């Protein structure tokens, strides 16, 4: 895949996914209107792949941005690639389509381009996004991911989504689906945390061998949301080696981190609500890292995770105890 010139990758179902995506997650303190403004800026700058989720609770605002940009003639619906995710309180098969239909209603769209399972471990169904017991402990639920997958296949057959995939799955969990009797559609992608401190090289090789695209979230390191990320986490964009390589190419460390992913055949998601940075994050198609640069960045790997989902560590489908 020549990502220097190719701005899209062909998924195993024949659909095209732009290799650079705009992430819309925002921490609790950020007003929802910000997602609307930032999504419009991202589309104006050139982003066509928008990554969102039911869990982010801002799909009304993001959907409004998409519709405004279609109405003013900037883009047509078929120019956009929109991803949403089935949240973990909807993993029971009878709830999967319901979650997607709720997202579509909020978005004001007839279909999404990609719908993925947000994580393999289920939480107790209900209206609470993060259900907790009286002592404040998150209430988990056990659902067979193969049953969830079958329900997602039905969503594709109904035309609610063009492609289907997964997120935060390890190799064994991907194999459960790939080896499922009566499998109708393979996952097109696996969206996982991936950046120079966690380069996922083994999972990437496995996914490539199965024609599954690896999509990188937290490609620029992570938001510092204290609910999910510990405050002493390293700042990826302050990494001296990235700064040195960036200086050599007259680029920013963020641009180098994104370019690194594209050259490895990984689809990268860039999240920023800052106009200057949104523009910078899109400017990664007109330079190339050398094989030496790539090797040096590979050497930064320390298997460091920002998002550990520690609350689910005892769940049978907790994904991060395996090597990959």
UniProtKB/TrEMBL annotation:
Record flagged with keyword Oxidoreductase: yes
Pfam short name (any one): Aldo_ket_red
SUPFAM superfamilies (alphabetical): NAD(P)-linked oxidoreductase
Record-linked CDD domains: AKR_AKR1C1-35 (cd19108)
Keywords: NADP, Oxidoreductase
Domain NADP-dependent oxidoreductase: 20-301
Family designation: Belongs to the aldo/keto reductase family.
Protein name: Prostaglandin-E(2) 9-reductase-like
